[in-house]
């Protein structure tokens, strides 16, 4: 894999949330790199912190309750987390964002045309005063209006929206789900971004429509040579769109590799459990992963996955946080089973030998307040800390997909 | 035109020795569209339009389709939460499509529903023990002690610990809540469960375990499942037979393997081709990529002729004029497409 300079680099990100149950240490030491022209996917289950990561990059993290405790974000070499004005500027000049649910991210009281016109009018501007707004509303010239309309029509046309002129005069509610998502992509493209962040943009759609949207998105990316960070829980979608994949678990990166490395032969026990759990056309492994996401206010010591891990080593995994070991192929795995410099074949052998999910008792459903019986020391010890994340972080509502 | 084509409906003939648990024939559920000052009916939505299929004893029959195809309405109509506007539902040898609420009560013990989102299907103000015991209360079964015993037994059956009895739904994770919903559905010892997207609100690692539980329960308690879902990869793994729905109509119905190995209907082909696969090895099991056009049209104004023709990659001129019937295309395999007739006449 030839690596160019990264367009986006997130280093050592740490994000905490203040909740009623205490301080939730959600994002722990997350590094993400997106190279120029590359599409990177972050995959993980509800509550793993993938949307929080995206929000931090977009400067949209609600603070409070969120707080960026540590970390740097470089966009083309420029640090953004410490400089809000720079972040705002880079965001409006170079970044575009596509959200999950077009019905909540499009205004119901404006037509598509009005929203697109406003994007064109105000893009790249921060702190627009009311005077300017009034001036824009009253004194917009017909020539500008027509030009903006042409540009909007052109984009809607690129996204294969039938009758783009007509769509400009319609309200979001008059459009189908697929059309709304296309409008949202068109709006993200209006600012001619170099970098796109997409947070589960196809989750609310049917498979046939999802297929169309993914095609269009790929087309846009190739035409404009965009870089993209794509957040999803759907591994199949990640295969369609991503060059590289980051697997996230409990606010940490478990594994990074190329699409095929991660999906065809995952090495981290969590990624393996995740990939195995997806029903496939070839087979369906019903073992799942035992246990629940940990309570972020009191995350497990050592590796955050160890209480649920079938290969957890007592004395190591519950004590020491695994670094990201880099294999000779460039793939990185945060798991004590591996070490730096292993070849992929060697690593795959270790994975095959050590990682075995069994279909035993549904640990997922063990009581959350009492220690489980009959578990090995490592697992039993931590059973008391597992609790449903749903009740405890403000993220859960948006993260529960489908 | 060949005379080999029997109307598909007749092929599911009633066999006395092994009568299917559920026989749905030409089921219709139309909703009126009203308008104007006097709320006059100005049209109708054919949410379920002439659907026929059987659910055999002990099998899982899956209905797949995109949003708005009428699959949820179909499930609710079969559970008689809605009254059908036409057709018949024979359950265990008895037509239940026109029964009154009172006559339905014993039937309700036999047919239970598990919904997609356990957060909204469980009453947040009741404890788990009361949620699971509620069917017993409604049907006035057992003494207090007997009910308590039954609830404890059910909780154990769905692998939930006993101390969950006194918890409220919001203290449970999504997977745990869905287990409670399943326990509640089993309280009255039903023979048919209508599973409406039972795992689509859950993460995959949790879904796997819930599916394993459902399969275990099916084998142990001899349950039949009518599973409604949009996840084709899942149905391939757990369903015995599958019906594909589009705009209220059954487009194709076949045993699971047949449907995936040799889909006959163009709509099924498109659905299969759009499955986002995870592992490279899966590619061999799905059809060539088909470029898919458009979205499901407005069900209140369906296209003329074949409902799928505006999106179909095989559409011919006649498709917009002639409405295809379901015809036999193989063993226990029916499909609705004009091209089947043509293939036949060429031979």
Q: What would you say this structure looks like, in words?
A:
The complex is a heterodimer of chains A (about 400) and B (about 350). Chain A has an eight-stranded mixed sheet, sandwiched between helices. Chain A has a four-stranded antiparallel sheet with strand order 2-1-4-5, covered by helices on one side. Helix content of chain A is about 35%, strand content about 20%. In chain A, strand 9 (about 245-250) and strand 10 (about 250-260) form a beta hairpin. With about 400 residues, chain A is α/β, with parallel strands linked by helices. Chain A folds into two domains: about 5-245, Rossmann fold, CATH 3.40.50.300; about 265-390, no CATH class. The longest helix of chain A has 18 residues, at about 205-225. Chain B is of the alpha/beta class and about 350 residues long. Chain B has a single domain (about 10-300, about 315-335), classed as Rossmann fold (3-Layer(aba) Sandwich). Chain B has helices spanning about 10, 70-80, 100-110, 120, 130-140, 145-155, 175-185, 205-220, 230-240, 255-260, 265-275, 340-345; strands spanning about 20-35, 40-55, 60-65, 85-90, 95, 110-115, 190-195, 225-230, 240-245, 250-255, 325-330, 335. In chain B, the strands form two sheets. Chain B has an eight-stranded mixed sheet, sandwiched between helices. In chain B, strands 2-1-4-5 form a four-stranded antiparallel sheet. In chain B, a hairpin with a 2-residue loop joins strand 11 and strand 12. Chain B is globular. Residues about 5-15 of chain B have low confidence and may be disordered. Chain A: It catalyses: Ni(2+)(out) + ATP + H2O = Ni(2+)(in) + ADP + phosphate + H(+). Chain A: Its EC number is 7.2.2.11. Chain A: The complex is composed of two ATP-binding proteins (NikD and NikE), two transmembrane proteins (NikB and NikC) and a solute-binding protein (NikA). Chain A: It is an enzyme of class 7 (translocase). Chain A: It comes from Natronorubrum halalkaliphilum.
């Amino acid at each position: 894999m030839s690596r160019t300079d990264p367009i986006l680099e997130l280093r050592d990100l740490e994000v905490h949330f203040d909740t009623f149950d205490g301080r939730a240490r959600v994002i722990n030491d997350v590094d993400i790199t997106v190279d120029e022209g590359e599409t990177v996917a972050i995959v993980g289950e509800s509550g793993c912190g993938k949307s929080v990561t995206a929000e931090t990059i977009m400067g949209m993290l609600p603070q409070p309750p969120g707080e960026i405790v540590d970390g740097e974000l470089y966009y083309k070499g420029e640090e953004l987390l410490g400089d809000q004005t720079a972040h705002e500027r880079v965001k409006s000049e170079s970044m575009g964002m596509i959200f999950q649910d077009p019905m909540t991210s499009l205004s119901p009281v404006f037509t598509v045309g009005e929203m697109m016109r406003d994007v064109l009018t105000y893009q790249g501007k921060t702190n627009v005063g009311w005077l300017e707004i009034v001036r824009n509303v009253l004194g917009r010239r017909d020539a500008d209006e027509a030009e903006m309309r042409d540009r909007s029509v052109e984009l809607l046309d690129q996204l294969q929206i039938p009758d783009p002129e007509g769509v400009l005069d319609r309200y979001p509610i008059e459009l189908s789900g697929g059309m709304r998502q296309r409008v949202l992509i068109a709006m993200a493209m209006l600012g001619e971004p170099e970098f796109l962040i997409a947070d589960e943009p196809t989750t609310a759609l049917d498979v046939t429509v999802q297929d169309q949207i993914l095609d269009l998105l790929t087309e846009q990316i190739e035409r404009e040579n965009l870089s993209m960070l794509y957040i999803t829980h759907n591994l199949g979608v990640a295969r369609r769109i991503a060059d590289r994949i980051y697997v996230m678990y409990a606010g940490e990166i478990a594994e990074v590799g190329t699409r095929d490395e991660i999906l065809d032969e995952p090495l981290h026990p969590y990624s393996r459990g995740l990939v195995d759990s997806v029903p496939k056309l070839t087979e369906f492994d019903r073992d799942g992963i035992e246990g629940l996401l940990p309570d972020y206010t009191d995350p497990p010591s050592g590796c955050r996955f160890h209480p649920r891990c079938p290969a957890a080593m007592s004395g190591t995994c519950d004590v020491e946080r695994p670094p990201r070991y880099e294999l000779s192929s460039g793939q990185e795995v945060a798991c004590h089973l591996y070490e730096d410099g292993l070849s992929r074949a060697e690593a795959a052998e270790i994975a095959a030998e050590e990682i075995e999910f069994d279909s035993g008792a549904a640990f997922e459903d063990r009581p959350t307040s009492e220690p489980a019986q009959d578990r090995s020391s490592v697992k039993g010890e931590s059973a008391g800390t597992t609790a449903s994340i749903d009740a405890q972080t403000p993220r859960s509502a948006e993260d529960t997909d489908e | 035109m060949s005379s080999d084509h029997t109307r598909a409906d007749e092929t599911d003939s009633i066999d006395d020795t092994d009568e299917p648990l559920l026989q749905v024939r030409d089921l219709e559920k139309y909703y009126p569209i009203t308008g104007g000052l006097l709320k006059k009916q100005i049209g109708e939505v054919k949410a379920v339009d002439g659907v026929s299929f059987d659910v055999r004893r002990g099998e899982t029959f899956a209905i797949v389709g995109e949003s708005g195809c009428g699959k949820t309405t179909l499930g609710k109509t079969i559970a008689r939460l809605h009254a059908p506007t036409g057709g018949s539902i024979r359950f265990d040898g008895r037509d239940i499509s026109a029964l009154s609420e009172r006559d339905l009560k014993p039937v309700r013990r036999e047919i239970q529903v598990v919904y997609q989102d356990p957060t909204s299907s469980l009453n947040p103000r009741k404890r788990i023990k009361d949620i699971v015991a509620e069917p017993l209360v409604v049907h006035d079964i057992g003494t207090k002690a007997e009910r308590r015993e039954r609830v404890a037994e059910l909780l154990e059956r769905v692998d939930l610990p006993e101390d969950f009895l006194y918890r409220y739904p919001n203290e449970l994770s999504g997977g745990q809540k869905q287990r409670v919903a399943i326990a509640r559905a089993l309280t009255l010892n039903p023979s048919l469960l209508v599973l409406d997207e039972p795992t689509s609100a859950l993460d995959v690692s949790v879904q796997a375990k819930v599916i394993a539980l459902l399969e275990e329960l099916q084998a142990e308690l001899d349950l039949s499942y009518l599973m409604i879902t949009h996840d084709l990869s899942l149905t391939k793994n757990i369903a015995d037979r599958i019906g594909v729905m589009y705009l209220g109509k059954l487009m194709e119905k076949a045993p699971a393997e047949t449907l995936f190995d040799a889909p006959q209907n163009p709509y099924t082909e498109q659905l299969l081709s759009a499955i986002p696969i995870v592992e490279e090895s899966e590619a061999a099991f799905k059809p060539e990529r088909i470029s898919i056009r458009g979205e499901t049209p407005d069900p209140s104004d369906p296209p003329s002729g074949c409902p799928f023709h505006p999106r179909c990659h095989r559409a011919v001129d006649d498709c917009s004029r002639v409405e295809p019937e379901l015809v036999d295309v193989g063993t226990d395999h029916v499909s609705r497409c004009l091209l089947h007739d043509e293939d036949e006449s060429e031979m």
